[in-house]
Amino acid sequence: MATQVFKIPETFRKDFKYTFCPGCDHGVAIRLVAEVLEELGLRENAIVAASIGCSVTIYDFLNIDALEAPHGRAMAEATGIKRARPDKFVFTYQGDGDFASIGLAESLHAALRGEKISAICINNTTFGMTGGQLGPTTMVGQVTTTSPTGRNLEYYGYPIKIAEHIALCEGTAFSARVSLDSVANIRKAKQAIKKAFEVQIHGLGLGFVEILSSCPTNWKMTPAQAHERVRNEMCNIFKPGIYKDVTEGLK
Amino acid sequence: MALETITEKKVLIKGNYAIANAAVMAGCQCYFGYPITPQSEIGEFMSGKMQELGRGYVSAESELAAINMVIGACSTGVKAMTSSSSCAVALMQEGLSYACTDELPVVLISVMRGGPGLGNIYPSQGDYNQTLKGGGNGDYKMIVLAPSNVQECFDLTYKAFYLAHKYKNPTVLLADGFLGQMMEPVEMKEYPYPEIDNSAWCLTGAKGRDGRVIRSYGPLAEDRCEFLENLFGKYKQIEENEVEWEEHNTEDADILLVSFGSTSRNVRTAAKICAEKGLKVGTLRPITLFPFPNKRLAELAQKVKKIITVEVNMGQMVNDVKLAVNGKVPVELIHKGVGTPPSPEEIVSQIEELV
Amino acid sequence: MSHIVIDENRCKACYLCIRECPKNLIRVSDKTNSLGNRTVEFCDEKKECLGCAMCATRCPDLAITEVYRG
């Protein structure tokens, strides 16, 4: 008798259809979020704040309560939701431009205040929805539509290392960077998301996961090539790992 | 400043504190704000009171964050507010456009100061256009209430929460630095309005039901047209039901003075002086700026010979008065750019020049 | 018996699953789905599937909807 080892999480809306480009890792990340919500029994108590960018479409796919935020403001809206309803499980699902460029103040201050919320940030080094412009995480040398000869320091300066910055905030309970370049890393990513959700449940502070993802369309690569880039280029600059975990040593 | 207990006796209180007390007594569950003169007392009061009552308070990192925190809190159906002033309300325009589209009961206390730019901290009515014409993108309207004394600061704060929830529409209490800073006797009555049931739309977690989405994104043009028609249908309802104004001596007036907020106090005194001089002068003060008393102004335009608006700005409401009377009578403007309202004597001498 | 179920109409032809299968049991099919994509198909004549679910874990579009092991 065969046992089922994989199914579409019930947290997805009936007949949902991902509208992401072929090979886009958003699809994997949202599935992991759904799996963790289900495993922790959070679906019926969860509210997600998602701000503009490809990430906002999470509300079309997951059958949970959702509030759309203006670009960059998801952390502020999540703060408002949690302060109004501390009994709810509140998380954000954002892109890097949203979380760390236009929304950097909201993100860092939510971490400094130790908001008891969780935040998922997809880092694909570019503004995906608008067609692949230079973002706060674009790597030095990387070609985008607004860095046609590659990101140079004279004009653009350096990319931000989000997980490290969030880890520096004293209100942060958990901060990790994971990658979706391989199946093994996808499984690690799920564990990190779970941890980021659990610290909220235990009221320890902000739980944060930065997820290194591919954007094959805007990188002008095949999905497989894009994962090579995540592995060989991004992981060297944005090193995966757990940067803060206040539960270490506790039990 | 302690929370005033509900009392039939009048207490002497500053406008900003009256507003803050009313918000707390209306059941405001969350306050998010960033300091700016001349309304900082509201945030100061709320910081202590909300913590004391175990309600939500965040000293926000910016006005952008503050308005979005209010949006977040309102999405769960609770009463929530922020307060700010002029150049800082400018920072909230994006959020207000979203809140109108999301149809959320956001309450904003806007205490006007001098502009444009940083301007100064003198009172002003320079944000009439910012509030009424929308500093944010797209077609939207907020309900706007304009108090003229501290009692009204208190009463209209109650009303702002009620109307915001009744119509699921952002509502602004448009005061000015004069009202925020001055003290007057106020009777603090209990919140007189019914509580609105938000359970059909608010976000509480999808327990036993499908997930709700509060969103402003409408990818298809046709859907968007329908959405906007419905939204403006709601605005029409608001115009039919909620327009409020105060008028005096309009029956046989030759001249109608139109003003709002603190300015209207000097305008009424000016009208009395005019009457002593034998001029037939009536006054009209819109209490709701949206909805605007268009119909009443159009009626009065059939009777009076001239309408004069008095404002502390370079002439903003005057344009709405002109639209309301549609060329029926000449509409003139007496104004002062910024500061305390023109004195009754100044207003009278300008009226005499105009007639 | 270990096997997978593919919802062809979800497949966007990224073909990441093909590389992931340790037994090379997934290949490009002759069929075109409603999205206009040449979909993948599961072909396991020798009953080699391990039920490891690596293909489903990798698939960004949840086109591999079920995996059974044993």
Structure description:
The complex is a heterotrimer of chains A (251), B (355) and C (70). By secondary structure, chain A is an alpha/beta fold. Chain A has helices spanning 26-39, 58-61, 74-84, 96-102, 104-113, 153-156, 162-168, 183-201, 216-219, 223-237; strands at residues 3-7, 46-51, 65-69, 89-95, 118-123, 126-127, 133-134, 172-179, 206-212, 241-245. Chain A has one domain: Thiamin diphosphate (ThDP)-binding fold, Pyr/PP domains (Rossmann fold), CATH 3.40.50. Chain A has ten helices and ten strands. A seven-stranded mixed β-sheet of chain A has the order 3-2-4-5-9-8-10, sandwiched between helices. A two-stranded antiparallel ribbon of chain A has the order 6-7. Chain A starts with a strand and ends in a 6-residue tail after the last strand. In chain B, helix 11 crosses helix 12. With 70 residues, chain C is an alpha+beta fold. The longest helix of chain C is centred in the N-terminal third of the chain and has 5 residues, at 16-20. Classes of the chains: A alpha/beta (251), B alpha/beta (355), C alpha+beta (70). Chains A and C meet through strand 1, helix 1, helix 8 and helix 10 of A and helix 1, helix 2 and strand 4 of C.
Structure at a glance:
The complex is a heterotrimer of chains A (251), B (355) and C (70). Chain A is of the alpha/beta class.
